Structures are given as C-alpha cells and as structure tokens.
TrEMBL record:
GO terms for biological process: protein secretion. It comes from Bifidobacterium tsurumiense. This is Protein-export membrane protein SecG. Pfam families: SecG. Involved in protein export. Participates in an early event of protein translocation.
Length: 82
C-alpha cells in the first residue's frame, strides 16, 4: 500500500503546481493586488467568455481532486493503511 501512498503524494504535488498556475491565470476583478502588479494592463485584452468558463471549470475540477487526494492521504495515515 505504500506504493499507492507514494503515487498519491506525487499526484498531489503535480496538482498543487497546476492549481497554482490555474489560479494565477484568472483575470483580476480590479481594485486589488492584481492591479498593483500589472493586472490592470491586461484589462482590455481580457479572455473570451468561453475561455474564462473553461478556465473556471478546470480550476474547480483540479481543486476538488486536490482536496480528495488530501483526504485520502489523511485517512490512509490515520488508519495506518500505508
């Protein structure tokens, strides 16, 4: 079972990096830190509605998988499966 735990940990690291990139790709809503660091410059060149919806979907899917893997690893540790 330790192989499963190792695979889940590797997938968790990959999903963590991917989730960070997906979150950073979102367009800033304005008035916050995104404008301070240049987010206001890309306001006119914003993405289309379909691209934004797809980005939102992928972010939610990866986030749910990320949480699921964390819960699975916690349960494996708690019950001493691996």
């Amino acid at each position: 079972m330790s192989v499963v735990k190792l695979v889940l940990q590797i997938i968790l690291v990959i999903f963590s990096a991917l989730l960070t990139l997906l979150i950073l790709m979102h367009r800033g809503k304005g008035g916050g830190l995104s404008d301070m660091f240049g987010g206001g410059l890309t306001q006119n060149a914003g993405s289309s509605g379909v691209a934004e919806k797809n980005l939102n979907r992928w972010t939610v899917i990866i986030a749910l998988l990320w949480v699921g893997i964390i819960i699975a690893l916690d349960l494996m540790t708690k019950f001493g499966v691996a």
